[in-house]
Structures are given as structure tokens and as C-alpha cells.
Amino acid sequence: GVQSFKAELLESLGRLHRPNQIYQAWELIQSAGFPYTNIDLIFAIPNQTLEQWEADIREAAQLGTDHISTYCLTFEEDTALYVKLSQGKVRIDDERDAQFYERGWELLAELGYQQYEISNFAKSGGECEHNVNTWGMHEWIGCGPSAASQYAGERYQRPANLDAWLAGMEASAPPREEVVRLNDSTVLLDAIIFGLRMNRGIDLGALMERFPGAGDLTPLKLQLEQFEAQGLLKRSASCHTLTQEGRLLADGIGSQLLEVTEKAV
To answer: Looking at residues 136-164, what average pLDDT do you find?
Structure first.
């Protein structure tokens, strides 16, 4: 959760830590002997320059982390930055965001971090197994407060309330909230949307075999063909991968796939 090594940028994000605390935490992590480490960074912060973004990436690499996750700033409600956005004091600039995205991808590759998902980069062998498992729509169990799970055909959350979570754990009955029963159609669509975020893309044929009860996929296939015609997608047999332009528009692509599928139901 570094986000930035620049004090002024951390302050503008409303983060409570300061650069010296980053280095103190890193020393503790190193001394504990964790075999793999990750650093999160945020870009396109108001008033952040490309040079500052490059410096943050270089500093993270200099620390020797195995994995770097980079996230474009999003304006969450009930935050000071969201208030400034609503007041017109800051604005969203898609072209600027794209510049930060692409420069980050270039520099991380130069520093030896291979992009394997839109926001995630790793040295050889440093990919996050949990993330890869999740984007592939396999199973996982979340344990802590607010943790999400996908297991035994269901999705559910642990309660955010600490007292409710603790009471359930002490009773040896881990609490579950917002339980959703899954079907092949839902999980297949999610596997496509999240799988396309990965640089290796998806094998649609393999996914159809894995989820045979997904129903008629004609609308979805037609939408994928349209993305291909627009230069957002590349296809080889049943394998589909996003182009660089497609990766910049991945959220919109996912939304369109979801919309097309919902209309067909």
C-alpha cells in the first residue's frame, strides 16, 4: 500500500503514512524473510507529473520487490478528492490517464517486470497466485472481515462488522453474508471479463467445455468479433487477447460484454 514515495502526493490522496514510514515498513518486511513481496502504486493523481510517476516506479524497483501493482486513481464517494471533483477543483482527463498507463507499462518492462494483467507486473516467478486463480474464476476462501469467497458453487462475504465477525469465529461458525448461488452462465461470463484483463487472454473453447451449461453464447461471440474488428481484440483459433488499445479500454469492454449478455437472457 505504498501508493507514492512523494509526501505531497500522499497528502493529496489523504493517506496518513509518510515516506519514512514506507522504508521502515519495508525493512520489517525484509527482516521477516517473506519469499515474495508486492508494492502498490497509484498514478494520475492530481498535479502528479509523468516524471514523478517514473520516479515512484524506479524507487519501487530499487527496493527489489518481486511484484508491482499499479492503479489509476479512482474518485470514491465520501472522500476529499471526490468533493474536489464535484466542485470542479480537479477533473478526470482520459488522455492524461492513458499517458500514465502506457509510460508505466514501458518503464516497468525496462526494469524487468513483465506485465501479466492490466494492473499487475512481476519478475519471473513472482506472479500473484491468488489473483491468477481469481481472474480464472476458480475457488478461493476469504477469512478476515469483509473478505470475499467463491467456493462450492457460491459467492459470499464475511461481515465487515468486527464484532459480528469475531462472534462467528469464536463460535466456530464463520459467518457468511450476501450469499449468491452460482451457475455456469454467470461464472463463464466473469471468466471471460476478468480473463481478458490478463495478457495471455482467454481460450473461449476451453471455457465452454468447463462451463457446459452456459447456454447460447451467440450474442457474446458476436460482441467479441466486433471488438476484433475495432482493433481492441486479437484472436487465434478460440484464444482471445486484448490489444494495447483494448487494455486501455478493458473496463468498458467488460461492461459491454455484461450488457450484451444481460439483454440476451
So the answer is: 95
